[in-house]
Each structure stands twice: as C-alpha cells, then as structure tokens.
Amino acid sequence: MIYCLNTSTIRPTPLLEKIRLAGEAGYSAIEPWNDEITAYLGQGGTLAELRSALGDAGLRVVSVIALHGWITGEGEDHARAIGECRRRMEQAAELESPYIVASPPRETVDLGRATDRFAELLQIGRSIGVTPSMEFLGFVAGVKSVDAAWAIASGTGDPYATIVADVFHMIRGGGSVDDLLKIPGDRLANFHINDVPADPDPLTQMDEHRVMVGEGIADLPRVIANLRTIGYNGPISLELFNRGLWEQNPAGVIRRGLDRIRALVESEPTR
Q: What is the second-level CATH architecture of the domain 2-266?
C-alpha cells in the first residue's frame, strides 16, 4: 500500500511546509485540498512551484479534495457548479493527480439522479485527465455508506468508476469496516485511515472527533485484513481533523501517524 498524508491532518501548517514535512517523515504520497491550493495560488504561488516542491520531497499527489454541488443544482446553478468542478479537476490534473474526490451533499438525494450526474463528472474528468471518485459521508442524510457510494459509481456502467472509503465514515454511517468486502479492490481509489473514540456515541460524531490511529475503538487490524482480502494496493491516507493534533508539532503528528500505519500494514496478518 502507498503511505499517504491527507493534508487536513496538520491543517494550520502552510502547504509548502506540509509537503516538506511529509517527505521528511517518509510518506510517498500526499492528498491536498483544492481550497488550500487555491489559497496558495492567491498568495502568489504557482502550480509549477508546487510540482517542484513535490518532486524535491519525493512525493506524488494521489488525490485532491474535493468537488461539491454537482448533484443537486439545476439550470444556471448546476452550470456554475460544474464550472467550478472543472476548475478543480484542471488544478488536480496540473499536479498529475490521478483522482479527485466527488463529495455528496448533506441532504438526501435520488441515487438515479446522482448516478447520472456522476457519469457526467466522469466524462468531464476523462477530457481533462483526472478521474472523479465517489465519496460517502457518514454524517449526511443521503450518501452515507459504502452501499450508496458503490451504487452510484457502479451504476454509471463505467469500468473505471471508483469510490473513496474511510474508517470514520463507515462507522459513523451505521455500517461496519466489513463493508469494504463489498467492493473490488481495483474500484477503491483511496482509503482514509483514522480512529473513532468511544465517546461521544460514534453514531453522533463529526469530523473533529476523529482520533489518531490506534487511540480509538475501530478494529484497524481487521480494516487492513479486509483491504488485503479485496486486493487493494493503493493509497492509505492519514486523514484527521482533530484540533488537539493541530495544536501539536506537525512533524511529530505525522511521524506518529505513519509509524502506526506501518505497524498495522507491515505486521504479520493473523490466521
């Protein structure tokens, strides 16, 4: 598996510093957010400078986050949302990212409509050179499970349609880490790893409740076993939004995360 840092894990740190620290810590990939890339460009930076920094750090971009508003709008609203999605896809392609996350809205959505809209995104992405990947969010009303995301992706009939899965979202959405067994490994674009505290009730938690790998109640050895079972060999991306971690030394946070992910992935599987 490819060890990846999702940049939300050390969010207050400037983007170029995140890249440098991830390379020094031993990650081989990074997963930045469109908003921070746009902010960096707005401060006078360039995509060429970002590519150079990534090369110096020995990192590749495996995914960028995220596309929004593409399911629910109509008419001019939909056209504006698609225009912004196109801009973000172009940004990802400039950084040579193979994937970009397509995020669902908070409200309930018609899966048939979502499938048609996702097929539209896939077509646009194909013309640009980046593939949108369907995300589910455990705390939303609609696309909150592996089943829902996979129904949308597979429903397009596109053999390259993929989803993104996440420890937190599988549990928060009322499912289990065994839901991974429903997906072919080559249809999982990226896997976000984190841990879930016992309190508050996991079914009420939000992003900021996530805790460092190994400090919660998620059965992470089972997660890795399930990923192996489906033949997944892509990125395993440390994604946290924990304010307590944001206040710590970012180098220490991401080194600790990588050490714990390695211990999970590289340990002998139980029989």
A: Alpha-Beta Barrel (3.20)
The domain segmentation of the chain, as residue ranges, is 2-266
- Which residues, in sequence order, are CB contacts of 139 under 8 Å at separation 6+? 169, 172, 173, 205, 206, 207
Task: Report d(CA 123, CA 125) in Å as an integer.
Answer: 5
Cβ distance 104 to 71 under 8 Å? yes
- Token look-up 């919660």 returns 216
Nearest to 141 by CA among 101, 117, 105: 105
User: Per-block average pLDDT, block size 10, for the chain (271 residues)?
Assistant: 97 97 98 98 97 98 98 96 98 98 97 97 98 98 98 97 98 98 98 98 98 98 98 98 98 98 85 44
Token pair 């056209």 is found at 79
